[in-house]
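hi!! sorry for the late reply, been swamped w classes. u asked for the two structures so here they r. pasted raw, havent cleaned anything up. first the sequence of the first protein and right below it the tokens
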Amino acid sequence: MLDSRWKKIKINISIVLLFGIVTALMTVTFIKLGTIVLNSDGSFHFSRLEELYDNFRSGNMTFIASHTFNNTGVGTFLFYPSILLYPWVILRLVFSPVTAFYVWYGLMLFITMCIAYYSMWLFDKDRIRAVLFGILYAVFPYHVHLGVVHTVVGEFLAYTFIPLFFVGLYYCLTNIEKWYLLGIGWVLILYSHIISAYITILCAVIISAIYMFIDPSSIKKVVINLSKNIVLVILLSSFILVPFITDFINAGINSPNSSAFGFLDTLQNIFGISLTNTADSNKSIGILALFTTMTGWYFVRGNEAKEKVVYGLGVFFLLCTSTVMPWQLFNNTVVGKILGVIQFPYRLNTYVGFFLMVTFSLIVSKFIHSITNKKTKMLVGTGIIVFFIISYYGSLTGLLVKVHTLQGNLLRNNVETAKVIPNDAIIRNSNYNNIFDYSILYGETDYYPKMAFDNLEDRNVSVEINPKINSILLHKVIMGNKGKIETPKATANRIEYSVKVNKKEKIDVPVLAYKRTKVMLNGRNVNYTVSPRGTVMVDGNKGNNKISVTYQPSKLLYVGIIVATITWLGLFVGLIFSGRKSVN
């Protein structure tokens, strides 16, 4: 028995080493190029990383943006989870900025492969299929698009844990012991990206409801398993839920748009883009998923029901990414309010990739298993993995061409406050810090107080469309009816302005006010009011006024951190003991 166990350990170590080699082959080119093409959400996430990095070096947690996001004190870190960015922060301490990003990207590819492999092993107990799925899921074009093409870091992180979530859901529905995988998977998605967590919970509710409708005898066991996961999720995510309860609900804070379904395309165009196997487009599912869509029915017809369900879900989600689903009809309806949080239906490509790659791994593993000669089987398996790596780089051709042809777009130092960073800016180590001299392309005004907007429907930060926001980004201090641009001093979670006035009057500093914002005037704690632009306003004294604005989190936040930590430790200890018990 010990020999059998040791053999399994050696096999798993070999597979992990294989994933490490594949990951190295997928990232070494980018590390050597030392160039990032910055667009879409990139400037948002690099600004988040830089704030965490600055504060981590000084031994501080991060609550508000003081160094980045134009020193406005925006609560991005309160309402957008950041905990899973800390591995990148630590790498940033060791490597140069661009290298740190690509090493982190490679690390996440590796972790994605390992989690996908483990999840498939739990689903089917076929090691060859599990290895294939681990690589296939990692190189899916939409995943690559999120990671290095458009640097949509939050969604990229969430993608990693989707397999764990769905195998956990499968175990919950079939009443297999590892019910807790659903809660762990969902919490890790929540730690990464709130919208992805919302979409996955919608999927779980719909799939569970259908399952219980088809098999009414399962209702009791499913409800019990789901209830246990709900308790687990609340405990593990308590420190993320607290700021929403204490600072966001009924606080008049703006959140990302959720009223319209954007970037829709026809199924015909999606198929056409996918034929090119490009990762440049967020609508491309690649040639392997396209092949699976068209032929998967043939390969799953003689298999268990679960394989047919998986294939059907993959095709269903693909249809939902297109105009086949009448998304626009849902606007201004109850359904629209529920689904509007998705914002962009192409986000469902994460689920298209997951389900269709499960089916494609079945197709390829069947082919490999049909080969009787061991050497031939090994050779064919190696060839298929090499093909996957070639396919990965093929999907990145557009990005690699950009790296070489857009050298004139090297991001230069900006001296014009509130200027938005240009798309396709070229970033190297030498100009990396220039990112933070600009307003970010998307997400600059997320989590601003709604009263800061003159036009809530248009997030443009120009003086013509949103003059109040423009004045905040310009660091304009307002004294009476006069405005003056001042330079702030920033430290961890603290922004300071020195303002001189000739008489006692109200001073409105360009730092956003939240429920737990604290203000000091000349070293003393003082009360403040919220200005018409959603910023901090104090009663200034004649002469010099040193106004320091910070954020004091609720004590419940620290309680939440302790509760989550204890729960994680309890889970690990429980898993270790249960593992030893099963071995004995």
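now the second protein. again sequence first, tokens right under
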Amino acid sequence: MLLAAVVAAIVAAVGLFTFGQVSWPAFPSSNVTQAVTTVGQIVTIAVLAVSVLLYRARRWVRAATVLSWAGLSGFVTVTLGMPLSATKLYLHGVSVDQEFRTEYLTRLTDSAALHDMTYADLPPYYPAGWFWIGGRVANLLGMDGWEAFKPYAIASIAVAAVLALVLWNKLIRADWAVVVALAAAALTVAYGSAEPYGAVIAVLIPPVLVLAWGGLYRPEKSTQTRSGGWGAVVGTGLFLGVAAAFYTLYLGFAAFAVTLMAIVSAGLAVRAQGSWRAMLDPLLRLIVTAAIAIAIALTVWLPYLLEALRGIPADSGTATHYLPDAGAHLPLPMLHFSLAGALCMLGTIWLVSRAASSRRAQALGIGVIAVYLWSLLSMTATVVGSTLLSFRLEPVLILLLGTAGVFGFFEFSRWLVLATSENPRVKASIVVIGLAGLIAFTQNIPQVLASDITIAYTDTDGDGVRADKRPPGAAAYYGDVDRIITEQRPGERHDTVVLTSDTSFLSFYPYFGFQALTSHYANPLAEFRERAAAIESWTELETPDQLIAALDELPWRAPDVFVFRKGSDGYTLRLAEDVYPNDPNVRRYSVTFPKELFDDPRFTIEEAGPFVVVNRVG
């Protein structure tokens, strides 16, 4: 796995560097990058096909292995990197969710310490694993966090896809493993790549579930073989620990699925052996898995847990206060009229038909059942004012069913070949149909991601540029705002707390913020509602002395700098409040500060485009 990760990272780095040497047209306004993407995909698929042929011929196996790593990482790199080659931003730019993700990477690029992305003096609440690694890479390369986000996201997905291939290679035939890993990588890029730190976990879930089932369910009659499988238990625990450090939701789902496996295994063991003692072995294996996972998870979660135990007031948090239409229905991708839908339908048929005879089908089937149970629990949780964000598991469901669909295609093809007395024309036809479907799906991935790619070109980046060459937005003045702040406060940026409603400013510069974009991204230890109430109360003050006194009496570190928007009757900020169960779940509202509050030598006031920058100097 380590060697595969190195190969994948090198291929991704070389590919992205090469793309960057050409001045490409913007993806939304030209078909050139789509054409080059298709060519790159065909080349990488051809490399993978060569590796499959070498595996089947059992010749140059090591070369085939390296080719499969390089081909798969190249496929991910060209599919994501080429459409984004003319912009420095990743999918969805720095809008909405991608704003706080970029802010997090910027924070951990500035410092290796585990800090909250926004609030000073608080440990992180969102798992820092993916962002910490990316921050250290960006820092080593001398890149800003926002600028490293795109290449790091693409490279990390490429590495994760290759790690999944290595794992599949240990679980199934090597030639099958290449095809399964390619299909999973394509589905991940198409449906899960906008959340790169989630995609790197999602692509590993199908093989890990097969691994976990091998460790938890030991039906062999031999005592020696029944007592084996501990390597799979350790591997599952390692994965769950990494998931905990990367993405809480996928950890929750994976742990839920593995627990469901342990319960099913315990029940089958009791039925087979006729004794309740039989359930102890799978439950012990589950406990060991959990212990390993918890030990790894604490490397990221321990600072937050210790801070919470010290008595710091923590809100319940509103991260789960979101119920879009997709979260109110059970996902049924197998009924979608598309290539992915057809693959999922084939996977569904295979799972049902092979549930009694295939361990792979049992593992993937339990994973599918776990998704649907999680979705039902999420919808039930709405009764008590929350959700389990089940809509974000749809990419995982597509991955599970799509993987099963590839196995179904293999077995249906084998049956068809045998039924036709191994007619070579039938074999050739099956290969051609499979390749045609693969190419048709993969070359359409940029269109599936078209809206996210478009935002990457229309958002203003940290250099104040829009990649589509149109006039930039207000973020073009962020450089001037930063210059004004650093002139007044020449120390490190992370020594300054900024209050602004243009929180994408914090995505580009590692200042701490006084208030997060919305409560859904806010640390529960930060007391989001109380901070918002404090900000509103300042607008009712009448003199600078009153404002200074209010700032000095805060229970949190007060803002050193205010970045306002100009208003007709003062300086304005836009705040947000949670209005769940409504959809949208956020209400934005404006507050206005009288200019007289800052008419004092203890404040300096400068303008930069639409912004007013107020520094507290005394």
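hope this helps!! also noticed smth abt the second:
The chain has a mean pLDDT of 92.
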